[in-house]
Amino acid sequence: MIRARRIGVTVLAALTVVGASPGWAQAQQASGIRPLAKAAVDGDGLPADWSITGEGAARKLVWRSGERVPMGDARVEFYAGDRLLGRPAPAKDGRTFRLGLDGVPLDSPQDLQVRAAGRRLDAPESTSGGSRSAVTVPRLLPANQVDPGRPGAYRTVTGEYGLDPVRLPGFAQPVEMKAVVVAPRGAQGRRPLALFLHGRHATCYTPQGEIGGDWPCAAGTRPIPSHRGYLRDQRLLASQGYVTVSISANGINGQDWSAEDGGAQARSSLVRQHLARWAGWSAHPSTAPVAVRKAPRADLSRVLLVGHSRGGEGVNRAAMDSLYPPPAPQDGYRGPVRWHIRGTVLIGPTIFGQNPVPDVPSMTILPGCDGDVSDLQGEVFVDGTRQVSRGAALHSAVYMVGANHNYFNSEWTPGQAVAPADDDFWHDEEEPDPVCSPGTRTRLTADQQHRAGATYIAAAARLFVAGDDRVRPLLDGSGRRAPSADPARVLTHAVGARRGAGFLPDGKVTVSGGRLCSAVHPSSAVACLASETAGTSPHFARWATDREPGRRAVAMRWSAAGSPVRVRPGLPLSLTGAKALALRVIVPPNSAGTRLDVSVTDTAGRHRTLGRVTVDGLPGSNRTASYWAREVRVPIGADDAAALDLRHVESLELTPRTGSGRAWLMDAWAWRPGTPAVREAPLARVDVGRLSVEEGDSGERTYRVPVQVSGRGAGQVRLFVTDPVTDKVTDRLVTVRPGAHGIDVPVKVQGNTRYGDDLAHDVFVKAVRTSVVGSHLGGVTAENDDPVPTLAVAPVADRVTEGKPLKWRVALSAAADVEVGAMLAVVPVTDGRELSSKDVDPAWLQDSSGASPDPERPLSEVEGLSLWVSVPAGETSAEVTVPTLKDAVTEPAESVRLRLTDDSGEPVPGAPVVTGTVVDAS
Question: If you average pLDDT over residues 693-721, what whole number do you get?
């Protein structure tokens, strides 16, 4: 017997029975969801809660959750093992997700998974702390000399405006232009502007407490005012003299599921649409809405963008697009840039493209208990800027212990929101998480978290916009705290600013005593963190491939003190003028007191120990991303300069002084205090598009992936190309410049007349040197243009003695390039006796329906029983079998009748019926 694997092409084809009506020879359109109860015991079927629907180009892989999946910012993704299959479309019920299967090979259906930011959605998470030691709480840091969380001298005024909606490329429905303004009352002169953009959340709600993701909101529902969730932050900034505006993006949230970039370009367009209005209102105040006229004039040369979750990725793209314009067809704003973005604040952000803007200062808040963007991929806004451009812009990561994703927005916070809201970090009362469950000593309350968030947003504004360097120690790893954020434990590290030469594992470097490890790699021997590790690291967040050259760290493991690890860059470095060597070092969560001696050697062989650092781990559990680098520094003084040639340092040495342990060096930099002025470099910009073509019936055609290089100057990117057949990804470094053809990816499309999948030749790009990347993903998709083969059924053995199998042969009208299948349901016998559940092989019955033979009943009454048949790719026929049992009972002939059904198990009207008859062996 060949049952249809519940993968491949499910053609719910009409069956041509020999001698039956030829009108049923053509495949029929399928509908509904294939039943799930019959996952094969031999490992050939889908896991529970999975199904495949449709046929031909319309077939989809479907997962249905037992409960509603909250609409969040992390992308829901389908995987087969560690291989990304794609990103499904959500249904309105919030439980069902569908992924189109054209061009998606399913080789391991038993290992299907649903993930969002690395966490499993289709399997229960382990909530215990495992074998980890007791949770550690970071010590209270010394207070900084200035506290940006204290309210300023101004009273505030609040108002809202609503403008005509705008059309954005790729979105069917217009997007609202709505915002809430909070400004200082009575402030003189032009004031800096802070613009807030919320993340991806449910869009609509009912008074009865139901929520949804539609746009526009249906009758009887109201828009969720996510843009009003930052009023506390806005009031603090307004009291300090800033004009603030928080804009609504429900129209993007309700439509971005199908956007290849997750809506980043659309959000950028919306931000710049608002900034353009503000620039006009600043020049002509009488044209402004009332809420804007009540505020001081905004100074558009001093703009801070604040984005939460996907809003963080959106404001990052807006900063990029303001400096390096995107291709016009994909942009929703094409006017002049009459503003200057001084910095960005990114709160629990996504960064699907891993494409930060290197020359715009940024501060990224990483919530330690984020249950949405749980891999804390926003760390890439820091790590991903290293050596891409001039390095003068400060990029800060702010790890907020005990903060979740939602509570930075009061409209996403239970008890404060007008619509239903929840804690995104799921809590199990029977197995509470030792770090993040409510009531633990590390978990913040909603009020504590929001207060801490407002304080650090104000810190970024004060540093990036006002230029107050006294705030920098709160953001740059100097180990100071803002008392207004107490009792939150907030830890920071940074790259850029006055950091000079660096020991970077990503470049040309050799390591002895340790190993260079890869941030993303399927092999535990190569990866920095093995897949079975309890917990994850923000530094090693996965991107678009299961291995990624160019992202590395130095892994250290020792069983005795005194075993040095030496890092030697390709060329000697200069530490001249540095006040300290700043290192970012990861140690395991909940560990304490890892001591390392830090030494350097110059090209003359002179060796000197600069000092000793002590590194403590973060509070962590199996569910947190707590393998995060702490910044530690050793001073470089005049005596060091006298003992060494600091202009020519050839190696860095770390020597453990604790008995055993593990650590990972992310980087080490020559450090000086201060915040330099930032000049944006003339960078090349790369955008990858997508071309869809028909495969044709014959011959070979060559197409090229559409890639646009704009901007100024030459740059270097890493180009990744996916083979759609083998799924293998190759990469290479490419030099790009505007007007040149540095990225040339030819794709050969072979025409044929066989039915098959669409084949997507995907290409993705990441910036390496003096470049930025806008649209990082695209390629050429060869669309199948051939019809689904028709099916015919002929008997092989449709009248047998008991104990022998009934058989039919299913034949295709032509071979296909993919598996083609059909489903037959058992229907009642209309003449004579029907085979019962005890007349067939019980193992076959269990496999086909999940049912037991007891109690005995006609086969047509066995719930969920159907026969699946599939014809493998390249073949033209297969057999479907009903194995029968021999017994000692004398009885008349018994029959079974089978009819073609659709995906929901309902008979296709008018479909032919095949009959099999079993007679006594005697």
Answer: 95
